[in-house]
Amino acid sequence: MDERKWLFDLLNVEEQQLSEKQLNILQAAIEMFAEKGYAATSTSEIAKRAGVAEGTIFRHYKTKKDLLLAIVKPTLFQSVAPFLAKKFVKDVFENEYEHYEQFVRAVFKNRYEFVKTYLPAIRVLWQEMAFHSDIKVQFQTIFINHVYDKFKQIVEHFQQKGELALLPPETIIRLTITTIAGFLATRFLIMPDYPWDDEQEMERTIQFLMNGLKA
Amino acid sequence: MDERKWLFDLLNVEEQQLSEKQLNILQAAIEMFAEKGYAATSTSEIAKRAGVAEGTIFRHYKTKKDLLLAIVKPTLFQSVAPFLAKKFVKDVFENEYEHYEQFVRAVFKNRYEFVKTYLPAIRVLWQEMAFHSDIKVQFQTIFINHVYDKFKQIVEHFQQKGELALLPPETIIRLTITTIAGFLATRFLIMPDYPWDDEQEMERTIQFLMNGLKA
DNA sequence: CATAAAAGTGAGTGATTACTCACTTTTATT
DNA sequence: AATAAAAGTGAGTAATCACTCACTTTTATG
Predict the structure, then answer these.
(1) Chain A closest-CA separation from residue B21 CA (Å)
(2) ipTM of this complex
(3) HTH tetR-type domain: from which residue to which, for each copy (chains A, B) (predicted)?
């Protein structure tokens, strides 16, 4: 019926019911913010692309910034979604993942699919984080409160098992994240037109990471 | 006398003589573009911060975009400066660097100082590359023509010496660059307020990289 | 010192901006 | 079917935008 289940999923608003026009507005805003940036995109352009009157935008979002936040906030949460799941750490400790490599593989694959699916919205989040300190602070807060602590437990768990080098956990976390994020940024942002063999390149990246981190 | 040698160095305009007011304009533009972004910064704001009349900006730069390019182009070249030096590859082959690790160390240290010194201008380059396809194309062109080929020769050299894993050179280049860039981005953009021990963290990063890439 | 070129100025301009509001249309509720 | 609430509209508005231009000041050159 509607090819925009992804918008529902991303914005996590399955319970609320957004009208067709509201979805048009959000989709147009995501696309144009991703292409030209928030500041360089006018509300009249968004209205035109969405096929609505300019006043309709302000009926639903008090300001242009509110429209940006309606896109950015859910994307921010989805970016770290695996770590927000309550049973996530328990899964790791109860031998859902026997080795750090399996854990990394699962996260990598999962985030690869996420970036592939929601690329435009993710672009908007990362681009505008540089200009809006409130968004950057929200990101840092969520990372510290919900991602860092859990990640640290997991790293220490595998260090005790003798799988990982005895570096400070924050260093291992940083190297893990920048290695994965480095691949995704290169693949989807910097060189999206290069003929990648994704499976193979991800495999090489994981081997590199595990060699680099092993005890 | 003047504490702005860095501006001369960055913009690589030692021969031309820029007036005091021109330097004020460039400095103000770099700072404001870095903070708020190009599109969100008005020429009247730049003039105010630079202490000049708005017309003075347009006396030197035909359009606002020209002012952006006057900042971005030299920064783009400086970003890959080590690879642009003619004798760079020869240095590597003639045992200036006996091991890949020494080469990586030299590049890492060099680019660390570069980012530390010119951070605002580098922010502008990377932020606006996302919105201006002409800038992105320039970057890709320079990378392919001046960086990639030389880097590839160096990697193959150390692969033949048996120091590096026999992965495709482009994969080794990617992993090397994203590991270094990942540290610099985390250190200077994402978490600039975290109390880093730069020396130690760079050392760990190099060990990680070499372990990950060794044959 | 004379003269011209270059640098600097700021009021002015038409276009565009985010946003408002009185009004119409659609949807939900009884 | 009646009524109210919600959604949608588009002309209108004050502010701001990048940029121009006639003019003044500074600098370089013989």
Answers:
(1) 27
(2) 0.92
(3) 19-79
